[in-house]
Amino acid sequence: MKFFNVAGPCDPRFHYMIPPAPRLPEVPDLVAQGAYFALHAPRQTGKTTTLRALATQLTAAGDVAALYFSCEAARIRQDDLPGVQAALLHAMRTRARLHLPPDCQPPAAWPEAHERFLLSAGLSAWCQRAARPLALFFDEVDVLTGDALITVLSQLRDFYADRPDHAPWSVALCGLRDVRDYKAAAGGDPQHLGSSSPFNIKTRSLRLADFTRDEVAALYAQHTADGGPTYADAAIDAVARLTGGQPWLVNALGRDLAEHHADAAEVGPARVDAAAGRLVRARATHIDSLLARLREPRVRRIIEPLLAGASAASPTYREDFEYTCDLGLVVADPQLRVANPIYREVIARELAVAVEQERLPGPKGFTAPDGRLDMRALLEAFGAWWIQHGEAVAAQLDYHEVAPQLVLMAFLQRVVNGGGFVDREYGIGRGAIDLLVRWPLPDGSWQREGLELKVWHDKKPDPLEGGLTQLDGYLARLGLDSGALVIFDRRSGRAPIASRVGLGQATSPGGRAITVLRG
Question: CATH number, domain at 262?
Answer without folding.
Answer: 1.10.8
